[in-house]
Design a protein that fits this description.
Layout: H1 2-6, H2 13-25, H3 30-50, E1 75-78, H4 85-99, E2 103-108, H5 113-123, E3 130-133, H6 150-156, H7 167-190, H8 200-207, H9 210-228, H10 238-257, H11 266-283, H12 298-303, E4 307-311, H13 320-334, E5 343-347, H14 362-367, E6 370-376, H15 379-385, H16 388-397, E7 400-403, E8 415-418, E9 421-424, H17 432-445, E10 455-456, E11 459-460, E12 462-465, E13 470-474, E14 480-485, H18 493-499, H19 509-523
Length: 533
C-alpha cells in the first residue's frame, strides 16, 4: 500500500497504468510475470481506492449492503450459533419493518430478545407500539379464541407424543380433548355466561380429574334438556344443540370406556388415568392466564401496526408448537379482512416448532401480505423435524435464503451469502444501558407494572419474571439484585390503594420504595401477598 501511495503524486492515473503494463510486457520469465501480474492488479486496486474508487463492490458484492425486497416471499436465515443471525440479519429486518410500519410478531424462544426490540423501538419512537405476550405482567390473549373445532385436532395431535405403542392412548386423548373443547365452544353460543370459556385452561380443569369430567357431562346434558323441555321456541338453537350432542356422543364413548362406575380394580383405574395423563400432562403449561384470557386479539393488533413480542421461554418445549400453530391458524382464517395491512412474523430457532403435523402455509400468507422470517442453524435441523418432502416444500416457499457461516456453507466472519454474492454485515446491537432505559420506560407506562417502585435502594431498576408469583429486580446492567412478590397479579389498582394508601401517594419513586420496605419490616404484613427479600 505504501508503494501505491508513493505514485499518487502522478497527475494522471492512466499514465500509471501504462507504466505497469509496459513493465509486465517486457518481463519474459513466466513465474516472474505471474507474480508481477498479481502485484500490479493489487497496486491498481489500491491506487483506485486511494483516489476514491470502491473496488470492493465488485461482482462478489462483499461490501454491498444486504438488501432484499419486501415481496412477502419469505426468508430463511441459516448459520451456526455465534455467526450473527440475530444482530446482523434479524434485528436489521426488525428495523426495516418498523420503518415501513409493518405489524410485527416475534416469537421469542429464549426470552431475552425483547430487550433489543424495545431498545430499537425506543430509538424509532415506537415504544408505545410494543405489546408483550406470554408473561404474567404482559398482555393476555386466548390463543384458541375464534378458532374452528377443525383446527383443534391439528393443534393437539403434535403435543401428545408419537410412540407407536401408545397410539390407542393418543387417539383417545385427542378425542377427549377435541370433544370437550368443541362442546364448550358451542355451549357458549347456546347460553349466556356459560361457566367454562373456550380455552385450554377450561380443558385442563375438566379433563385433569375424572370427577370433573363426570360433572361436566352431567351439566351439559342437563342444560340441553332444560332448553329442549322449555316452552320457548328453540328452533334457532336446534343446529347448535345437534352439534353439541354429536360431540357429546364422542365424549360419552371415551368417558364410558373408562367410567368411574366401572372402576373395580387397579387395572381399570390405570386405564382411565392413562387417557387423562396422556392428554393433560403435555399441555399443563398451557394453563397460564397469559394464553387463556382474551384481552387482545393478536391479528387485530398486528394490522394496526403493533409490535408483538411473544415470550415462550416460560412454556414447556412440547407446547410451543401448539401456541405458534394456533396463531398461524388465526392469521390464515381472518387475515383476509385486513388484506392490505402488511405483517412480518419472525421466528428464530424455527426447528423448535416445526413438525410433520403442522405446515406453515407460506403460499397463502404471501397472498395476505404476511412475510415470514425463519432462522435456524442448518437445514439438517429442519430434516430432524420434517420428512424430506416437507423440507423440500418448505425450502421451495422460502424464496430468500441467507447463509451465514455454518454447516450448510462456509462464509467469512461478518459476511452473508445471498443470491450468488457475499455481503459484508453490520451488526445492529445495543448496550445494556440502552436496553435498560427502554425496558424501564416501557414498564413505567405499562398498566400492570406502572404502580411498582422503579427504584430500589436509590438504584433505578426494572423487573423480570422469576416464577408465577415473584419478580426479579434488575439493575442498569440487567443483573438481578433482589426479588419481590408479584402482588400486581393479585390486586387491582384500587386494591393497592387500600393496601398501601399513604405509600402510593408518594410521587418520589425512591421514597416510595423505601416506605414500602420499611412498612413490611416494621408491620410484618401477614399473608405474603407482597414482600421484599
Amino acid at each position: 500500500m505504501e508503494f501505491a501511495k508513493a505514485f499518487i503524486t502522478f497527475e494522471n492515473f492512466a499514465e500509471l497504468l501504462i507504466i505497469f503494463n509496459f513493465i509486465k510486457k517486457y518481463f519474459l520469465f513466466s513465474t516472474i510475470q505471474l507474480n508481477l501480474n498479481f502485484s500490479c492488479k493489487k497496486i491498481q486496486k489500491e491506487l483506485k481506492m486511494a483516489i476514491g474508487f470502491n473496488t470492493e463492490s465488485n461482482s462478489n458484492g462483499e461490501n454491498k449492503k444486504l438488501q432484499i425486497p419486501v415481496d412477502f416471499r419469505h426468508r430463511l436465515i441459516l448459520g451456526e450459533t455465534g455467526s450473527g443471525k440475530t444482530a446482523s440479519v434479524i434485528t436489521p429486518i426488525m428495523l426495516e419493518r418498523m420503518e415501513k410500519n409493518h405489524g410485527i410478531l416475534v416469537f421469542d424462544f429464549k426470552g431475552n430478545y425483547h430487550y433489543t426490540i424495545k431498545a430499537l423501538a425506543k430509538k424509532k419512537q415506537k415504544l408505545q407500539n410494543i405489546i408483550e405476550l406470554g408473561k404474567d405482567y404482559g398482555s393476555f390473549t386466548n390463543i384458541i379464541e375464534g378458532l374452528p373445532v377443525e383446527a383443534l385436532d391439528k393443534i393437539l395431535r403434535p403435543l401428545l407424543g408419537h410412540d407407536a405403542k401408545d397410539k390407542f392412548w393418543e387417539e383417545s386423548a385427542i378425542q377427549l380433548g377435541v370433544s370437550v373443547l368443541a362442546i364448550i365452544k358451542y355451549m357458549n353460543e347456546l347460553v349466556n355466561n356459560y361457566r367454562y370459556s373456550y380455552s385450554f385452561n377450561s380443558l385442563i380443569e375438566i379433563a385433569s380429574d375424572a370427577k370433573n369430567l363426570k360433572e361436566f357431562k352431567k351439566d351439559v346434558k342437563n342444560t340441553v334438556n332444560k332448553i329442549l323441555n322449555s316452552s320457548a321456541d328453540y328452533s334457532k338453537e336446534l343446529n347448535i344443540i345437534k352439534t353439541i350432542m354429536g360431540y357429546y356422543k364422542i365424549l360419552d364413548k371415551v368417558a364410558d370406556d373408562f367410567s368411574l362406575d366401572r372402576m373395580v380394580d387397579d387395572n381399570e383405574k390405570t386405564v382411565l388415568f392413562s387417557v387423562i395423563s396422556t392428554l393433560v400432562n403435555p399441555i399443563a403449561s398451557l394453563r397460564k392466564e397469559s394464553v387463556n384470557i382474551p384481552e387482545i386479539d393478536i391479528l387485530k393488533e398486528l394490522c394496526k401496526g403493533k409490535i408483538i413480542v411473544f415470550s415462550l421461554n416460560d412454556f414447556d418445549l412440547n407446547v410451543l408448537n401448539a401456541i405458534v400453530s394456533a396463531v398461524f391458524y388465526k392469521i390464515i382464517l381472518f387475515k383476509m379482512s385486513y388484506k392490505d395491512a402488511p405483517v412480518t412474523i419472525i421466528m428464530d430457532e424455527a426447528q423448535k416448532v416445526l413438525n410433520n403435523y403442522f405446515e406453515l402455509p407460506l403460499d397463502v400468507l404471501r397472498e395476505y401480505k404476511v412475510d415470514v422470517v425463519l432462522a435456524t442453524q442448518s437445514i439438517a435441523n429442519l430434516k430432524e423435524k420434517l420428512n424430506s418432502d416437507k423440507v423440500e416444500a418448505l425450502l421451495a416457499n422460502l424464496t430468500h435464503k441467507i447463509y451465514l457461516n455454518g454447516q450448510d456453507m462456509e462464509v467469512p466472519k461478518h459476511h452473508a451469502y445471498y443470491n450468488g454474492q457475499y455481503y459484508k454485515l453490520n451488526p445492529l446491537e445495543f448496550d445494556k444501558l440502552d436496553k435498560f432505559l427502554a425496558e424501564r420506560e416501557y414498564q413505567m407506562s405499562h398498566t400492570k407494572l406502572k404502580n411498582l417502585p422503579f427504584s430500589h435502594n436509590s438504584i433505578p431498576v426494572v423487573y423480570s419474571k422469576l416464577s408465577d408469583t415473584k419478580l426479579l429486580i434488575k439493575d442498569q446492567n440487567l443483573q438481578a439484585i433482589g426479588k419481590m412478590d408479584f402482588f400486581i397479579k393479585k390486586y387491582k389498582k384500587e386494591d393497592l390503594a387500600k393496601l398501601f394508601p399513604d405509600i402510593l401517594k408518594l410521587e418520589d419513586e425512591i421514597n416510595q420504595s423505601r416506605a414500602i420496605e420499611e412498612y413490611l419490616r416494621n408491620e410484618s404484613y401477614k399473608g405474603g401477598d407482597y414482600d421484599y427479600y
